[in-house]
Amino acid sequence: MKRFDSIYLRVAAVLLLGLLAAEWIADRLYQEERERVVSHLISGPLGQRLNLVADRLERTPGNARQELLPLLNSPRLTYALAKAPLSGRPAGTLAKLQSSLQEILGPQRQVMVAGGAESGDGLPTTTRISFVLSDGQVVVATHQSPDGGATAPSRHLPLLTGYFLAIAVLALLAMRWAVRPLQRLARAADALGRDLAGRPLEETGPSEVRQAARAFNTMQSRLASYLNDRLHILAAVSHDLKTPITRLKLRSEMLPDSQPREKFLRDLDEMETMIAATLDFLRGESRQETGVPLDIDALLSTLRDDMQALGGKVELNGTADRPLLARPQALKRCLANLIDNAVRYGGGARITVSDSVEILTLRIDDDGPGIPADELESLFEPFRRGEASRNRATGGTGLGLAIARNLARAHGGDVTLANRPEGGLRATLTLPRSAIPG
């Protein structure tokens, strides 16, 4: 059962329930009013007729009443003498009819009404009415509804149903039109995290939505300006640092002792690597490429061969059903970082490909010691590493996973870490098969 987790569904549910309640109330009021009108229309002529018959019978001797009754009968109303009045307590239309007839015939003539099933107009198909004459004689009148009591179908219910459907369709279309700007705003907010340079949101729709879109565009512009300024500053700092680093390298080459020279050069190389990695992380190089259909199987095979050529152990299982729309260099670096982590810390990587209509999933497993569960998410923080040292022989700059997640999210996907029950760590890369920002 689909959850009511959107404004459209919730408002639609409230509206439809309100319309149904209004239709039910209108039907009840209509039925009550119709019963009152029908009872009034029937009881008036019928009561007058019964009153005339009662007066005529009152003036007729008891032994002659039986012979008079056939003369008083009509096609829809017949009379008979009885020993006792009708019993029971009528309800609904019959109760109203009995009250009206009692008022017309007077309190001295006890009136009782009984009937069968009601027709579509609220009139019983056969109605029996008993009244008592002044000398105690009971007379029972049998009334037949018009057309032999055939049920007349009610015409108001289809009309109300038609009104309900028309109003519901128009209201749902109006609500869909009203929430469309909100859906557009949600899509733009989702795309903002992947591409700050995307097109501004159209400032259309109701005033509240236009105001929200205007605020959103202002926020996007300020964020893009802030990040560009920060990147320019860092790029300038990086450029300025290259000159002293180069001078230090030249001076290190002039050192007479080879052992200190190698240490200096190693530290300077590490500084260059950290600066380059930091700039790559902040620059978000994935935004410099355009998405193209990419053969995932070929990319994984290339990464496996490259890693094996360096002595790493990599296994590849499963295949992608079809190419994925992606940025080649960005996705290659994302996968390379994940595979490199598995080989570096877990002794090898096993890549499993699972494909579906909507999502491509890549799992990279290793046989390493794993990571405490409460520290898994923190490994995606910049400069955070799974082992405490900063030794280049055992680890990098601590930006590999942060860059991998940034690149995955730039594709609309994500990277997560989990410990495997059988031991080792599993990195899961999910990539949607929907289009990515160009």
Key structural traits:
five-stranded mixed sheet, single chain, Heat Shock Protein 90, four-stranded antiparallel sheet, 438 residues, alpha+beta
Task: Give structural notes.
With 438 residues, this protein is α+β, with helices and mostly antiparallel strands. Among the domains are: 7-146, no CATH class; 290-432, Heat Shock Protein 90. It has helices at residues 7-58, 65-72, 93-105, 156-192, 207-253, 258-283, 296-309, 328-346, 400-410, and strands at 77-82, 111-115, 126-132, 138-144, 292-294, 314-317, 324-326, 349-355, 359-365, 414-419, 425-432. It has a five-stranded mixed beta sheet with strand order 6-8-9-11-10.
The helix/strand series, from N terminus to C terminus, equals HHEHEEEHHHEHEEHEEHEE
The CATH homologous superfamily of one domain corresponds to Histidine kinase-like ATPase, C-terminal domain
Corresponding CATH architecture of one domain: 2-Layer Sandwich
Q: How many E strands?
A: 11
Q: Determine and state the CATH class of one domain.
A: Alpha Beta
Q: Can you give the helix content as a percent range?
A: 40-55%
Which outline best applies?
rod-shaped
Give the termini separation: 36 Å
Which regions have little confidence, pLDDT < 50, spanning 5+ residues?
Answer: 148-153, 388-394
SS-based class: alpha+beta
- The chain-level mean pLDDT equals 78
